[in-house]
Amino acid sequence: MKINFRPLSAALLFFAGVFATQAQLGIKAAGNQIILSWPATDTNAVLQCATNISMSNWLDSTNAITVNAGVASTIIPATDRSEAFYRLFAPFGMALIPAGSFTMGDTLDGESDAIPTNVYVSAFYMDTNLVSSNLWQSVYNWATNKSYIFDYSGYGKGANYPVETVDWYDTVKWCNARSQKSNLTPVYYTDAGFTQLYTNGDIDAIYPKWAANGYRLPTEAEWEKAARGGLSGQRFPWGDTITENQANYVSTNLFSYDLNSYGGHNTNYDTGPIPYTSPVGSFAPNGYGLFDMAGNVQEWCWDWYGTPYGQPTTNNPTGPTSGNPNTGSTRIMRGGSWYSYASLARCADRVANNNGPILGDHTVGFRCVMGY
């Protein structure tokens, strides 16, 4: 069996507008089979193959057989393509969140709107970091030159700090712009036929093209699964207690799980004028390699606020179809912020917001996901 293979060591390739990490692949013959191997640390990468090197033709390798559990190597059987290229692929700056069921919500602290529910979520990629001011501005500048109209210009304490004071509508439009700038198919439209791209105005009736490969906001279920980092039944992405060495939040003696011995803002970041945000990636990541899933800034999700979980289905739920007329148009924010107590930084905590930014305290930001 002949396999065309070009090893690329720690290089970066521009693939469909997305930077992709290309790890070193090892190759050796084993009879009439080929064994590919790669560093065990590349857990977020997906093995892909193509019959030519054109970057538009890569597909996930479906014939690969894992040699054994825990070993990052794969056998390519003789029944596979007689000639192919192989690579490991992951969108640059994103982590692969594996498919599977998990328990959404918990009753650790008496939450009435977070009753535990078994939910299934398909695999997806998520930004490892909050959208930074620098990234926001880059896409924002591109978009405003392409007839996009935003309500707010966004603010960040520094280039590598999270963007904040952005409303829900702007983040959805920005996701579309990021997709277009990266030559990907945008997700959000103003018509059910997906012909009118959402680029301006404050429109509640947005139609997501879930099968598109572009950037979008996470659903509430996706956000919580990602935040938990593979753990189950814990308050935070790392366990049941919290200190200022783990997240940027306001400490208090009101909660037994807040182990700081003082009350107030995180002492590492409460200098200078507000906001007291921290640079993205300042704390240890969770089990999925995601930073700031608790504290720093709250994160917009796609869903309207509603109870119970699992609407309209517990299989990839996307939330209610509209806002609650009794409480106004309210979307979900998750994760807590530098301005809130540890209770809001819990994985199960839910905050409903009327789609606008909180301009006075600079607490609302976001991160993107994309389909797997």
Strands, count? 20
CATH architecture of the largest domain: Alpha-Beta Complex
Distance between the termini: 30 Å
> Could you give a short account of the major beta sheet?
4 strands, antiparallel
Summarize this structure as a short list of keywords or feature phrases.
disordered N terminus; Immunoglobulin-like; 372 residues; 20 strands; paralog of FGE (formylglycine-generating enzyme); single chain; mainly beta; 21% strand; four-stranded antiparallel sheet
What is the strand and helix layout of this fold?
Elements: E1 11-15, E2 18-22, E3 26-30, E4 33-37, E5 46-50, E6 59-60, E7 65-66, E8 73-76, E9 85-89, E10 94-97, E11 100-104, E12 117-121, E13 124-127, H1 133-144, H2 168-181, E14 188-189, E15 207-208, H3 220-228, E16 298-304, E17 331-334, E18 351-353, E19 364-365, E20 369-371
Parallel strand pairs: 16-19
Antiparallel strand pairs: 1-2, 3-4, 4-8, 5-6, 5-9, 7-8, 10-13, 11-12, 13-20, 14-15, 16-17, 17-18
Helix pairs in contact: 1-2
What would your notes on this structure say?
The protein has 2 domains: about 10-90, Immunoglobulin-like; about 95-370, Alpha-Beta Complex (paralog of FGE (formylglycine-generating enzyme)). Helices cover about 10% and strands about 20% of the residues. The protein has helices at about 135-145, 170-180, 220-230, and strands at about 10-15, 20, 25-30, 35, 45-50, 60, 65, 75, 85-90, 95, 100-105, 115-120, 125, 190, 205-210, 300-305, 330-335, 350-355, 365, 370. The strands form 7 sheets. The protein has a 4-stranded antiparallel beta sheet with strand order 3-4-8-7, with no helix packed on it. A 4-stranded mixed beta sheet has the order 18-17-16-19. Strand 3 (about 25-30) and strand 4 form a beta hairpin. Helix 1 packs across helix 2 (about 170-180). The longest helix is centred in the middle third of the chain and has 14 residues, at about 170-180. The protein is globular, with a radius of gyration of 22 Å.
